[in-house]
Automatic annotation (TrEMBL):
This is Dimethylhistidine N-methyltransferase. SUPFAM superfamilies: S-adenosyl-L-methionine-dependent methyltransferases. GO terms for molecular function: methyltransferase activity. It comes from Herminiimonas fonticola. InterPro entries: EgtD, EgtD_Methyltrsf_superfamily, MeTrfase_dom, MeTrfase_EgtD-like, SAM-dependent_MTases_sf. The keyword Metal-binding does not apply. It comes from the Bacteria.
Length: 320
């Protein structure tokens, strides 16, 4: 069995307070992390199979085609730290080329990660593995048995897009700090980033014809009903997903189809017909805007790989 360290506590009260504050704000908002309960995670996997949802497939092709060059840029024997590892499959695909000295998958979904890392340890008995259950978006301080040499932070899937650009900068700076050994930089970042492209392609990727993304978004209300003991009626809501040019981001919202009141044990919220709950942002970068962000965060020596249509990009950058 692989080592496993659990740093998440189930701080239920904090979760409720944060949720209620978002729901009762003038512009109702929820954090995208609430999209990922057990069913939400399965619906996201289904999204990745959709013809319209190009990111997963395009990124996989880039890794498939350029893994050898990536290994050359990165070097062998790294401490491979997988942020949001889930089933650990994306990182495991890189093991043969990268030959990491230690593999450290991190995820907030603790039980799922525990199973994944144990299975993977059986497949790769020679790689030292330390699973860590924690919310790395809150605090990136790692347990002591995570090696400090040659850290490679792996953040695929364009999840960086969920951060507002200012928060993305803060987060990237934390990664860069975690690559420091005292005053000496010793590490880097391998990250997947979705690129700006024609609106119609972006719109379709987040509002697919089968309605899987709509189900994924609406399922958030089922999750809220369970977390808060609330009474959202899913038939009274619809999905909206579209590219906002000005802010260079996909926005997902849930829109009320009627005037209604939603109740939970210690609160209520009235929604008017047409009013929306903002459930997710997914920022899209240009190659240059993302390289600037990396540089500002304290990285250098950026190498990028992209697909022929330049829809998605994988970057390696060294801590400076
Ligand atoms: C997991 C955040 C990368 O933004 O594309 C997919 C989530 N939301 N369809 C993305 C998502 C709607 C996804 N990320």
């Amino acid at each position: 069995m692989a080592q496993f360290i659990q740093l998440v506590e189930q701080r239920t009260q904090c979760i409720d307070d944060e949720l209620v504050a978002g729901l009762t704000a003038t512009q109702a908002t929820t954090s995208p992390k609430y999209l990922y309960d057990a069913l939400g995670s399965k619906l996201f996997e289904a999204i990745c199979e959709l013809p319209e949802y190009y990111p997963t497939r395009t990124e996989a092709k880039i890794f498939g085609k350029h893994a050898q060059e990536m290994a050359q840029a990165i070097g062998l024997g790294t401490t491979l730290i997988d942020l949001g590892a889930g089933n650990c499959a994306k990182a495991a695909n890189l093991f043969p080329c990268l030959q990491p000295a230690q593999y450290v998958p991190i995820d907030i979904s603790v039980e799922f990660l525990r199973d994944s890392v144990n299975k993977l340890q059986q497949q790769f008995p020679d790689i030292d593995m330390v699973g860590v259950g924690m919310d790395f978006s809150v605090d990136l301080r790692l347990p002591k048995n995570v090696r400090s040499e040659k850290r490679l932070f792996f953040y695929p899937g364009s999840s960086i897009g969920n951060f507002m650009p200012d928060d993305a900068l803060v987060f990237l700076r934390q990664i860069k700090s975690a690559c420091m050994q005292g005053d000496v930089a010793d590490g880097g970042l391998l990250i997947g980033v979705d690129l700006v492209k024609e609106n119609s392609i972006l719109d379709a990727a987040y509002d697919d014809v089968l309605g899987v993304t709509a189900s994924f978004n609406l399922n958030l209300l089922l999750h809220l009903n369970r977390l808060l003991d609330a009474d959202f009626d899913l038939r009274e809501w619809r999905h909206r997903g579209f590219f906002n040019d000005k802010l260079s981001r996909i926005e997902m919202h849930l829109e009320a189809l009627s005037d209604q009141t939603v109740r939970w044990p210690n609160g209520v919220r009235r929604f008017e017909r047409g009013e929306r709950i903002h459930t997710e942002n997914s920022y899209k970068y240009t190659r240059q805007s993302f390289i600037s962000l990396l540089t500002e965060a304290g990285f250098e020596n950026v190498t990028t790989w992209t697909d022929p249509q330049q829809w998605f990009m994988v970057c390696h950058a060294r801590a400076a």
